Amino acid sequence: MNEQERRAQLRGKTIDLPSIIRVQDLAKKLELPIGNILATLLKNGVLANLNDDLDYDTAAIIAEELGYKTTESVGELEKDVLTPEKLNEILKKEDPSKQKPRPPVVTIMGHVDHGKTTLLDTIRSANVAAGEAGGITQAISSYQAEHNGRMITFIDTPGHETFDFMRQRGAALADLVILVVAADDGVQPQTKDAAAYAKKEGLPIVVALNKVDREEANIEKVKKELSDIDLVPEEWGGKTVMVEVSALKKQGLDALLDMVLLTADLNTPKADPDRPALGTVVESRLDKSMGPIAAVLIHTGTLETGDDIVVGKSTGKVRLMKDFRGRQIKKAGPSMPVSIVGLKDVPQSGDIMQVVEEHEEATAKAAQRRAPLKRMTKSDENDERQTLAIVLKADSKGSLEALEQTITAMVPDEVRLSILRSDVGAISDSDVLTARAGGAIIYGFSVQVAGMSQKLADKEKVSVRIFTIIYKLSEDVRSEIEERLPVDIITEDIGRIKVLKVFFSSAKKKIVGGEVAEGIVEPKSKITIKRKEKKSEAAAEQLGFGIIVELQKEKRPLQKAERGDQVGMTIETKTKIKEGDVLEVFRETKVRKGSVMNTSGVR
C-alpha cells in the first residue's frame, strides 16, 4: 500500500485528542511524518517544534486539515480537575505581598420560612434600579450590593440546597454567614444545622433577627434560644453580632450591612487580582441559543473574555461575560459573580473554574498576546537573553547565504538570534504569519512583497524592511542587536550644592537657592538629597532623589554653574527640601555590555 492509498484509507477516521498534546505525539496519533505536521502548522501561522504543546483546538484544526475527524478525550483532562480542597490549598498559598482587599462574600442561611428570600430580594432591589439590563430578576444566584461605597457579594441558593451547596465548595466560597432567624418563631432545626455548619467551617456569623415588626415577635426569647446553641449576643457578654431587621418593611438593613462589613474587616478578605482566575460554578444551564451558561464566583485572579478555561470536566473559551445585572463586561476580578458563555458542556454546580495556563507557544494567536521577541519553545524558557527574531528573504540562494553568514557573525553572546525562516522569493502571507507568531522582523533583499501581504503585515503590525544593498541591511540588523544588548549604568559624581533657601515647595516641585560647593552643575542634572542634623555625629541621611530642571543666576538661565556660584534651581522631586540640605549632583551613563561586529568583520 503506497502513501496515497494509506491516506485515502485513513481519511475521515475519528481520533481522540487530549486537551494538551505535543507536536511529536500528534504526529504519532495521525501516523504521519513530523515534517507534515510542522508544515501544516506553519501554513496556519504557527511556528512550532516537535516538543511544543498544542491545545485541543489547534491540534484539531491541524488533524482535520490532514483529513481526520477529532473528539476531545475527557480522561486526560480529569487528572487536572481542581477540587474544592485543592482550591482552598491554592488560596492559602497565595503570596500575601501580591494580595489586595476584595469585597466580602456572604451566604445567607436560615429556616425555609424565616424570610431569607425576602431579605435577599430587599437588599437586591435596593441596589438594582428598575429598567437596568436584566432588572432584579436575573437568573444568576449571586449578586453584589453597594453599601457605604463598598461592594458586598451575596450568594443565594434557593430552598433546602444551601448545605449541599456549601459543602461542595468548601469554606473558600464564603467569608461569613448571615443567619436569618424569625423573631416570631425562634430557633428551628435548620437554624441549628446552619449554625453548626458555619462554626465547623470557621465562618463568622451575623444573626439577622427578622420579622421584628410583628406583634408575635419575642426578641429576648429568641436570643435565649440562640445562646443555647452557643450564639451569645454581644450585649449579653458574648461575641455574636445580632441585628434586628424587618425585610418586609425594609427596616434595619443599613445596620445589618454595616455589621457585615465590620465583621468582614476583622479578617480583611484579600486576593491576588493579577494571577490567572480561579472560581466556583454557582449554577449552570443550557440555553437554546447561546449553549452552556455558567454562573461563576471569582475567588482570585481576573477573568477576561478570550481566556481559555477548564471547568470541572468541561473546557472552553470565555466568549461572552455578563455581571449580575446582565451587563456585558470584559473583565471580572475577585469576589465578582459573573455568567459566562463559551463552554463546550454544561458544568455542575460546585465545579471549579480555572484559567488554563499558557500553552500558547505553539499558536499564532497566543504569540500576538505575548510580548514581542518572547521565546516560543520550552527549551528557551530559561534563556534570559533578549532575542532578535527575523524572517529573511532574498532574490537568490547566494545572496541568502551571504546574508545569513554576515548576520550570524555580527551577533555577540549577550543576544540570541532566531532566524525563523530563510528562503528565496517574494515576501508572502505565510512569511508575515510566521513573523507575527514569533515576534519577528522581516528582512527582504532585492525582493518585493507579494500581493496583499503588505496590508496583512500592516494589520498584524509586522515590520517589513526591504533593502537593495547588503551593507545597509546588515547595519539595520546591527542597530537592532545593539538595542538588545544588556545595559550597565555607570554613576559619576560631578558636583555638590548647599541649599541656602527654599522659595517654593509643592508635592512634586521645589524652587531653591544654593551655592555650588564642589564641581559643576548643569540643567537636567540628577541629584541625591541628603540631610545632616547639626548636633548629630552620624553621617548625612539620604532622603531622596530629584532632577534640576532649570538653573538660573541673577534671574537669567544658566547652562553651567561652577564652584562658588550662587544659583536658583527648579527641582522635580517628591522629597521635602530644607535649608542646609546638601544636593549631590551625579551623571548616569549607560554602557552596553558586549559589542557587535561591524560589516568589515571588526568588533
UniProtKB/TrEMBL annotation:
Entry coiled-coil feature ranges: 205-232
Top-rank lineage group of the source organism: Bacteria
Pfam families in the cross-refs: EF-G_D2 (PF22042), GTP_EFTU (PF00009), GTP_EFTU_D4 (PF14578), IF-2 (PF11987), IF2_N (PF04760)
Residue ranges occupied by any Tr-type G domain in the UniProt entry: 101-270
Alphabetically ordered keywords of this record: Coiled coil, GTP-binding, Initiation factor, Nucleotide-binding, Protein biosynthesis
Entry annotated with the keyword GTP-binding: yes
CDD domains hit by this protein: IF2_eIF5B (cd01887), IF2_mtIF2_II (cd03702)
InterPro entries hit by this protein: EF-G-like_DII, EFTU-type, IF2_II, IF2_N, P-loop_NTPase, Small_GTP-bd, T_Tr_GTP-bd_dom, TF_IF2_bacterial-like
Function comment: One of the essential components for the initiation of protein synthesis. Protects formylmethionyl-tRNA from spontaneous hydrolysis and promotes its binding to the 30S ribosomal subunits. Also involved in the hydrolysis of GTP during the formation of the 70S ribosomal complex.
Protein name: Translation initiation factor IF-2
